[in-house]
Structure formats: C-alpha cells, structure tokens
Amino acid sequence: MDTEGVEGVLHAGGTPIVTITGCVIVAIRDDLDDQSVMHLQDELVEEVARRGARGVIIDISALEIVDTFAGRMIGSMAQMARMMNARTILVGMRPAVAMTLVELGMTLVGVETALNADKAMNLIVNDLPPVALAQ
C-alpha cells in the first residue's frame, strides 16, 4: 500500500477515518446503527481538529438507502466541519439516495458533492470553487 501523504488512520467503531494531504476521509458503511453514526460523527470532528484539516470527504457509496437520521447526521458532520474551517464534500451518492434525500426534504445545505474521492481531493487541495452547492 502506498502511504505517501497519509497522515493518520483512526478507527471509529470499525469505520476507518483516514487523513491524507490535509483531508479527512471517511466512508459511511451501510451497516452502521444510530449509535455508531453518532460515535463516528464525534470521532470525525475530533480528527478534523487534531489534524487541522482543510477538507472532509464523506464517502456514502456503500449506502443503498438513507433515512432521516442518517441524512441529518451527514448534514451535521458537514456543518461541524465547516465551523472548523474545513470544506466538506460528499462523494459516491447513488441516484436512489439522492432521490430519497429530496423526497425527505433534506437538501444538505452547504454540502458540496463530487463523483468520487479523487475529484473531491482535487477540489480541496487545489482550492477550486464548488461544483455543486446545495442552496
């Protein structure tokens, strides 16, 4: 495994939180229960503070469906990271998840999206303007 640029790996309840080149990256698993999501949120915010991260990439490609709790937690993670001056980009959103979030009325205000983690990392590292920003 190439570890160039990897600054740290933390496991929050079995979910790895990886910091690479000033970006905290976390992949949300489909099997997380509500308690695990809350623990992950706490650990993510701690890692942003500990590393002084410029960005947070939340990968939700493993989620086939999303409920209101998970949607609120994703929004909360993004808002907390923004308050700590870290740009947040959501990646890997499936069409069904996007449709469900809209149907639930969850716009995830201020959360940027990208097709994948590479594109998100490029936006953060090169300080490029947002591609898609929920209003």
Describe, in short, the structure shown.
The chain has 135 residues and is of the alpha/beta class. The protein contains four helices and six strands; from the N terminus they run βββαβαβαβα.
Structure notes:
This protein is of the alpha/beta class and 135 residues long. A six-stranded mixed sheet has the order 1-2-3-4-5-6, sandwiched between helices. It starts with 5 loop residues before the first strand and ends in a 10-residue tail after the last helix. The protein has a single domain, classed as STAS domain (Transcription Regulator spoIIAA). Helix 1 runs parallel beside helix 2. It contains four helices and six strands; from the N terminus they run E-E-E-H-E-H-E-H-E-H. The longest helix is centred in the N-terminal third of the chain and has 18 residues. Helices cover 39% and strands 23% of the residues.
* Helical content (DSSP H or I, runs of 4+): 25-40%
Strand share of the residues? 15-25%
CATH fold assignment: Transcription Regulator spoIIAA
**CATH homology group:** STAS domain
Please, how many domains? 1
Structural class based on helices, strands and sheet pairing: alpha/beta
Q: Please count the beta strands (DSSP E, at least 2 residues each).
A: 6
What's the CATH architecture? 2-Layer Sandwich
Stretches with pLDDT under 50, minimum 5 residues:
none
